[in-house]
Amino acid sequence: MGGIDNMSKSATALGQEYGLTAREMNFVLREEGFLGGEPGNYTVTEKGEKFAEEQDYHRGTDGYAYYNRYWTTRTWDNGITEKLDITEDRKKEIRQAIASAKQKISKSEEEDITINCDSYDNETADRADDDYDALVAAVAVLLIVVSSYGIYKATPYIKQWWNNKAIPGLMKVKNKFTDQAEKTKNGTDNNRKSSDLKED
What we know:
Elements: H1 11-18, H2 22-31, E1 35-38, E2 41-44, E3 52-59, E4 69-76, H3 88-199
Antiparallel strand pairs: 1-2, 3-4
């Protein structure tokens, strides 16, 4: 950065001398080969190195990136004004070019948003159906597994209950009904016998 003197200026200050904004001044510097890259990500070219000085800054205490800002400032030597071709007609061309670029960017962003929204709606609906189907399948499998495990674990207890409680209980009920049926039958038979005896 050999040609830098103490009176270097930012793109904003340099642009003010010509009635341009920082964006417009950076556009001029790029068009004339002093900068390369795109807005927001400019780099100094070999031609621009003679006139530009970049200073990196850091504010923070390390740790989280959110709390640590890094930025670079770029200043230009006053001698660059002799190399720039900025006339009133040139300013109009610059402003028209920037406005045209903004419109193109705006249109492409709108198209991207529209395309993304359309595809998002279809994809979201498809994903929601797929997610629902997957959820239903997962719940069904889970219920089968839990039921199988429950049956496996409960089988010995069910056998024990069946043999020790259910069968004896059923036998009692059966015997009770059998006894009642026999008593009823015996009672009916006795009544017949006594009625048969009376008839004789």
